[in-house]
Amino acid sequence: MIGRLIDGRYQVRSRIARGGMATVYLATDLRLERQVAIKIMHGHLADDAVFKERFVQEARSAARLAHPNVVNVFDQGQDSDMAYLVMEYLPGMTLRDLLKDRERLTTEQTVDVMDAVLGGLAAAHKAGIVHRDLKPENVLLADDGRIKISDFGLARAVSANTATGQALLGTIAYLSPELLTRGTADARSDIYAAGIMMYEMLVGAQPYVGDQPMAIAFQHANDPMPTPSHANPGIPEQLDDLVLWATAKEPDERPSDARVMLERLRTAEIEIVSARPSSTMTQRTMVLPPDTFDADLDQAQTQVLEARRRTDPVKTIAPEQAAATTVYGNAVAAPGGPQPPPGPKEKLARKSSSRRKRGFWIFALVLVVAVALGGGAWYFGAGPGAMTTIPDVAGQQPDAAVATLTALGLEPTQQQQSDPVVAAGTVIGTDPAGDTQVRNGSAVTVLVSSGPAILPVPTLAGLDEASAKSAIQTARFTVADSRSQFNGDVAAGTVIEALGADGNPLGAEYGEQQPITLVVSLGGVPDVVGQTPDEAKATLAAVGLTGVDGSQDFSDTIPEGQVYEVSYSADPMVPGAEVTLNVSRGPAPVPVPDVLGQTWDKAKQALIDAGFSLDYNFGADLAPGLVRVTGTNPAPGTLVPKGSTLTVSFV
Asked: Does domain 5-88 have CATH number 3.30.200.20?
């Protein structure tokens, strides 16, 4: 990217910083011939409509503000596949850098920084904009003393207060309880973040700390806010009260917006200054040394004392000595009687002596300056004060990254950090970030991925699909595309099970932001037995299944031409699978039993047991046990469908 010309106008010079959504470069605006900061969205996010909208939102939000404490936005556009944002370039550092360097700030410094931050926030709130990501990293301290708020990437209009997951893109250490518990944000959420930031400046540490983000979030929502003076007793009571007011758990108990808090801050500043004891003290009578006076000044009423006449220390006399002092014109004589003023000879000698002293001090001053310049050149050129650029070691193995940083004269240490994207055992980056300039010998933390944070998996089976997806997002996992399958034991639209990235059912724990696939029931496969093949195929097609012709077999229960049996091509059945349709040919044929010569009662029972109906004319005067069968129609041994009617004759 270095050296690239963006949109035919902005020449990229060097990289300034890298964040989760974009990288910031120093560039030259060739049209207006000025330096600008150009923020370019990461390439893998360019196709994500949500991130692109947030990127454009930053430009719109910041462009609506014209305030000396808000970073100006000059331009926004698209060059090929890159979305970019052009901002005011402010050489300097962030408030986070200052806190790392000094640990904590004085009361006066804290008030100055907060006055600027609240001024910029007040302008945003007046314009109906909530910053939603206020933290020391987004407060810029320019080399010329200006203090500005940056990074309105999460800003939203005050009326659009539904956060639903996006609010948590802000830093957890500065999120208000309502953002963590209800997902809503307004101007009072920015006030809460400002209060946390003010506490950190006064104390040198955040009020709530923990190993896991969820632990910190729990403290924000439930633990009482400590007062800054508990950790730093020198903090005035007025600032204690202001921090507690800004960080109240209930939004209604905080200042309504930044303007209200700014007014209270300035009132507190006046109260703090007024409460300090006066440094005015009674001064004793002073006697100036003799060489303070000059011949051509003796007649003047008002005398200007040059630097060369202040080489002797000021002598202090007690009040009783001052009362005995005799003044000759403008000269002062010591106690003990009047003394005449010095003559021209003495004054000339004193002038010569003064010139010699002045020459000596000038030579000494030149020598000291030369030594200081030489020492400074060594200190800042090759000594401990020299600057080194931290290389980008992201993606390397930890040992290789440590070796690279050590070779540059830095002091690297490793620190494990969970990351949902970078593989475990691989370097995520450094703190300070790559391409940042630090002094030789500075400590650099190499952040090594421990893989995704392991989080508990909520119970998803038995929920409807929408509720299950909401539970997945709340638990900080990623919702993957759902799968559907037929299941006669689970109602349609209900989650059967949840699968991990490997396609296996999830256990009790899973990696942060890893994908979860829901398997959702479509209900049972429709029953098409007893339907004609065409009817069965239409029924199956309505639910996404395909009916195919199978075999034709005899069935004693299903009439000829109807489906008597189905078979499935998959288990479980999913949309698009095939269902084989076996069609009935009616009952199977059976041979007619041979009952010729048998008595009527035995023959009748045999024919009925064989599944036939009988047609006969048996008179009432005949005895069933004596009459014998003489024939059947069809004849014995003939194959006829079971259930057919036989005509029986007898004598």
From this structure: yes
Do 425 and 396 form a contact (C-beta atoms < 8 A)?
A: no
Model confidence pLDDT, tens digit, residues 528-564: 999 999 999 999 999 999 999 999 998 888 988 999 9
**Which residues have C-beta within 8 Å of that of residue 246, sequence separation ≥ 6?**
191, 192, 194, 195, 198, 254, 255, 261
- Alpha-helical segments (H) within 382-417: 398-407
Using left for φ > 0, alpha for ψ between -120 and 50, and beta otherwise, residue 449 falls in beta
Range 589-650 classified under CATH 3.40.50.920: no
- Alpha-carbon Rg for the chain in angstroms: 47
Kind of pairing between the strands at 139-142 and 546-553: unpaired
- Determine the Cα–Cα distance for residues 490 and 519; give it in Å rounded to an integer: 11
Examine domains 387-449 and 454-521 and report if their fold is the same: yes
For the chain, the domains span 5-88, 92-275, 387-449, 454-521, 533-584, 589-650
3-class DSSP assignment, residue 412: strand
| CATH domain 387-449 topology | Trypsin Inhibitor V; Chain A (3.30.10)
- Rounded to whole angstroms, the Cα distance separating 94 from 17 reads 11
**Is-catalytic flag, 112?**
no
Which amino acid does the sequence have at 249?
A: K
Length of the chain: 651
CA distance 544 to 567: 16
User: Residue 584: CB partners within 8 Å, gap ≥ 6?
Assistant: 552, 553, 554, 555, 558, 559, 560, 561, 562, 563, 564
Q: Is 609 exposed, middle or buried (0-12, 13-18, 19+ CB in 10 A)?
A: exposed
- Tens of pLDDT, residues 374-425: 666 655 555 555 788 999 999 999 999 999 999 988 999 999 988 888 888 9
- Count Cβ neighbours within 10 Å for each residue of 501-535 and write b for 16 or more, e otherwise: eeeeebeeebbbebebbbbbbbeebeebeebebee
Catalytic residue among 133, 240, 291, 419: 133
Close Cβ partners of 616 (under 8 Å, ≥ 6 residues apart): 647, 648, 649, 650
What does pTM read for this prediction? 0.44
Residue range 92-275 in CATH 3.40.50.11810: no
Whole-angstrom Cα distance, residue 533 to residue 550?
Answer: 10
Please write the tens of the pLDDT for every residue from 109-163.
999 999 999 999 999 899 888 888 899 999 999 988 899 998 775 544 444 343 3
CATH 3.30.10.20 at 454-521, yes or no? yes
**533-584: CATH topology:** Trypsin Inhibitor V; Chain A (3.30.10)
User: What residues have CB less than 8 Å from 635, skipping those under 6 apart?
Assistant: 592
Q: Which amino acid is at 583?
A: V
